[in-house]
Amino acid sequence: MKREVTIAREGGIAMAGFVFGQLIRFGYNLAAARLLGAEALGIYALVVAVMQVGEVVAIGGYDAGLLRFVSQKEGEERKEIIALAMKRTLLVAIFAALLIAIFSRPIALLLHGGELLRMTLLAVVVALPLSVMTTMSGFAIQAHQRLMPKVVASQIIVPGIFLLAMLFARFLWGRESALALPFVISPLVALLWIAPRFGRMTGVGLSDLLRARGNRELSRFALPLLAVSLFTMLSHWIDVVMLGLLTDVGTVGIYQPTARTSSLLRSVLLAFSGIAAPMIAGYYGRQDRAGVKDTYEMVNRWIVTIVMVPFLLLVLFPGEALSVFGKSFGAGSTALVLLAVASLLNASFGLGNTVLAMSGGERLSMINQAGALVLQVLLHWLLIPRFGLNGAALSMLVVTMLLTIVRMAELRSLLRIPFLSVKLWKPLVAGVVTGGAMLVLKSLAGPMHPLSLLAFAGVTGVALYALLILAFRLEREEMEVIFKLIPFLKRQRTNEAQ
After folding, report:
1. What's the sign of the alpha-carbon dihedral 479, 484, 488, 491?
2. Residues in contact with 281: Cβ distance below 8 Å, sequence separation at least 6, in sequence order
């Protein structure tokens, strides 16, 4: 099957899952804001930050190692790599969970969360090994170029069960249970679902895990990527953590929906990078640099095309987007605009990090993320005390802009990938025209309910943007994908040509 069709099919599946997962997480933030309050939402954000950092440490770059080496190995050697990665990450996850248990009280005091934060952190002690095994099972299946099981587990089961558990616990046992219980139940259900599929796809069983021994090649590859993943995750959550350190959980609670709403744009990058990563690794392993470049430019163009209208909605209608959480959350409107611009840059050019990691530049990627994290901490320290949550958002934007420039320069130097593909002019011009039309619509709309205005602008923007993209004509790759995935159109075109 052609590369374009595989990426479109698997990327489409992943994107649908990511969008669903992000919407469910958005729904959780909305329900928590209404039912639990801003303070509880802030505690939730801080606990998620701690848990995800623990997951990154436990996984240690072995997720990317699976994506790279499984596609290059066969038979028993492939099974040994998968078994080693699963065993190593489980052991580290258990150790990380014990550390969280030991230091739960100091962490709660440091982040101004009190006993409620400590109690929720203790739930993570149980959840962390379960979550890591679920994640690694998904990556092992993904390495076989099958994204559906991973998407279902991570983007449907985990957020869906998390939301349902919170709602049931809130009405049955109260706020404390509603915060803590979902962290345990959701990864347990996801692991029970994906484990049989992992066994059938990989052929790896319990005996393989027990016999697994070290692999120097895999370990050498994973170590710098552990640093990259850790720096990336810390960069993703450092704004929330620094707000907890320098302000209070109430401010974190207002900032949380803002940050998570803007991160909806990032889900498109995550969807397509998941299937592009093993393909890029395969091209690089065959020394096919043209294949790496073409894959990057094609996926980059698709991502920009998809995220443009949601980006315009967040930037032009920030107050309306946040109004769903309640009146007090409108204070995050300026921060939402800044974070949306940062998310657009990340979604549009973040695939460069995947290209570096899969093409021998994992150490360079590690240096990039380390420098970005240091700069981010410094800017947060300077700007949060002065500007509050807007200072945190501005810091994120500045660091994202600089990191994008550095990463693109590296891709140009190492792989001859240009800063901007010529074919990007279509989604960019269509976006500018659509944004202008949405601004005119906003000025002429008059008094409307915020959500009605947002929905009207969204439908109008999507329709105009799609018409402009069609008017500019689709690229050859897009036409091939459409005709391959929708055979009726291909037959119709053939009949018209006869």
Report:
1. positive
2. 67, 68, 71, 72, 358, 359
Condensed to tens digits (0 to 9), the pLDDT of residues 195-216 reads 998 888 888 877 777 777 766 7
Instruction: Return d(Cα 274, Cα 197) in angstroms, integer.
Output: 18
Q: What is the pLDDT of residue 446?
A: 72
Residue 123 pLDDT > 70, yes or no? yes
Prediction pTM value: 0.70
H or E element that contains 205 = none
Name residues whose C-beta falls within 8 Å of residue 364's C-beta, 6 or more positions apart in sequence: 356, 410, 414
Residues belonging to the chain: 498
Helices (H), 247-323: 249-262, 266-285, 289-316, 318-322
For 209, the 3-state DSSP assignment is helix
| 385-427 confidence digits (pLDDT tens) | 999 889 999 999 999 999 889 888 888 887 777 777 666 788 8
Q: Which of 310, 253, 299, 320 is nearest to 461 (CA)?
A: 310
In angstroms, rounded to a whole number, what is the distance separating the alpha carbons of residues 335 and 318?
A: 9
